[in-house]
Each structure stands twice: as C-alpha cells, then as structure tokens.
Amino acid sequence: MGDRQGPPTPKRPRINIVRARVTTLYTHAPQPRWILDSAATSHICWDRSCFSSLRPHREMLNTAGDPVETEGIGTVKLTLRGKFNQPLVLKNVYFAPRVGMNLISVPKLLRNRYSVVAHPQNVFVQRRGRTVGTAYHAEEDLLILRCHVSKRSRERVQLARAPATYGHADSLEPQAVAMDVDDPQESSGAECAASTSELGGEAVILEEGACKGVDQASEALWHARMGHLNRGDLRVVLRQTGTPYRPLTQAQLLATPQCPACMSGKQHQKRNSRARRPRLHSSRIFETIHSDIMEMPIAKDGSRYVITFTDDYSRGSWAYAIR
C-alpha cells in the first residue's frame, strides 16, 4: 500500500456514542448519570447545572456519528458514593448539550493517577491502591459511576435580572451576563461562591444566600418566562422548585393590565369541564387523529417544536419533540 498523501488529520477529542437518546423538556431533573467511557478522550457533560464553573468554548468533537459542537468548558465536582464519600473533581469538562449524556474519560482518570478495575459484577475506581468509588453495569454494557453532583454545583437555575442601568427589572428581554472563567471555589476573594452563568446570558446559577444584591423576579416576569402559564400552576411550579419570586398582591393583581399574549391566544378562557366527555367524530380507534404543533424555547438537545397526536376515539395522546 502507498503512503498516505495530504495534510494529517487534526486530532480532536472524541466521544464513543452514536446518538443521544435523552431529550430534555423538563426544568427539574433528577441526579444525572455519569458513564465511564474507555474510548472517550475528554470528559463530556450535557447538563449545565452540573458545572461549578463554566466559560464559553467552541470546539467540534468527533463522535461515532455526526460531529458535535461544544458550547463551553469548565469544572464539575462529583462526590463518589461509598464509605468515605470521596470528592472527584473533573476539570476541562466539555459542555455539549447535544450529546445527551455525561461521559467520564477513563484515559483522563488514568492520567490523574486513578485506576479502574473491572469485574463481571462490579467496577472499582481506585486511587493509590485504595478503592474510592464503584460503578455498576447497566443496560447496553454501560458502566455507570455511583456518584452525585456536589451540592454546591447543583444550585437551581434562576433567570438573570436585567441591570437597572440597562433596563427595567421586569423587562421580558434578559440582558447578557458575564461568565465566570475561573473556578469560584478556587479563586480568592470571590463574593459569590457559585456563579455559573448560562451561555447566551439567559440564566445564571446562584447559590442560595451567597450572592447579595440580586432581586427576585416578579410573578409577572415568571409568567412570561414559563410560556404564559396560568397563575395557579405557575405558583405551584415555583413553590415546588424552590424558586424565589415576588408574588403579586390582590391589589397589584387588579391593577396589573391583562397580558396581551394571553388575550390573543385565548388563554384567558377557563378550561373545559373534565366531567363532560368530548363529542366523538369516530367509531373506532385510529380512525381520526387530531394533530397540532407548537413552538417552544430551544431545549438542551436543540429541539424547538413539539408535535402532538390525539386519537379521537380513545383520547390517547402522544407528544414528540422535533427540530
């Protein structure tokens, strides 16, 4: 065989996946899974809330499928589950929402003086001969590390308030927020212990009680941010997620003008009675299908629309996220 001609192919970090299987359309997620990947050359994380520090970074990652572009790079602090709950700090972790999973590079762990010992039943993560963590075999021969994101990193996401010098606090257009470059826990003299900012300036992660001078968003602003959700359900969501907000008093509610978007979309009407069965237009299942499509804020995997299908006879409904 002849020698290869042309310039050498530049080396890029790669991740050993074919496609992302997870579609995030939620705002309150459980603890994410972290997969030990012996073929990955870099740590990958798709969930912004896992980062303790994050800065913008654009780079293409080679995958088993299509290349994936990163949106940032930062530090993730994990706590290994076990007798001693050892911390595991992952540095230079790529933030790639389209990957759809969190990958820990085994070669990088080895370079950081960790060792991974695999057995048919269990996988042990060791450092200097002592077991500091374990992993288990999951579906599709995946190795899932028993760990959770450190408490300091799992602070809730809170949309950034527009600075008073640039606009009104309740403006529907959020202002850009500067992103922390250094690890807030490693930098000295930092006023805010956790200030990971979302890429694009749409949200900022704030540790509860750590940052001073940040006003709580009003209930009217959260109404717009949550897709013009009705007041009752909006308060339930904010209360269950522990999100601080300024509730409207009855006097303020009466003085507040009606939302133009809700009036145009007829969202001010009361919901139909659940006791009354809707009139059927079919005599068997799948004879008539009702479908609708709506636009939503771009999800972590890039989905922008939701398409729904409802069977007229059985009232069975299906919803799919599409791009």
TrEMBL record:
Pfam families: Pol_BBD (PF22936). Keywords: ATP-binding, DNA integration, DNA recombination, DNA-binding, DNA-directed DNA polymerase, Endonuclease, Hydrolase, Magnesium, Metal-binding, Nuclease, Nucleotide-binding, Nucleotidyltransferase, Protease, RNA-directed DNA polymerase, Transferase, Viral release from host cell, Virion maturation. It comes from the Eukaryota. GO terms for biological process: DNA integration; DNA recombination; proteolysis. GO terms for molecular function: ATP binding; DNA binding; DNA-directed DNA polymerase activity; endonuclease activity; metal ion binding; peptidase activity; RNA-directed DNA polymerase activity. Residues 34-114 form the Retrovirus-related Pol polyprotein from transposon TNT 1-94-like beta-barrel domain. The keyword Protease applies. The keyword ATP-binding applies. Gene3D superfamilies: Ribonuclease H-like superfamily/Ribonuclease H. The aspartyl protease (PR) mediates the proteolytic cleavages of the Gag and Gag-Pol polyproteins after assembly of the VLP. This is Retrovirus-related Pol polyprotein from transposon TNT 1-94-like beta-barrel domain-containing protein. It comes from Penicillium desertorum.
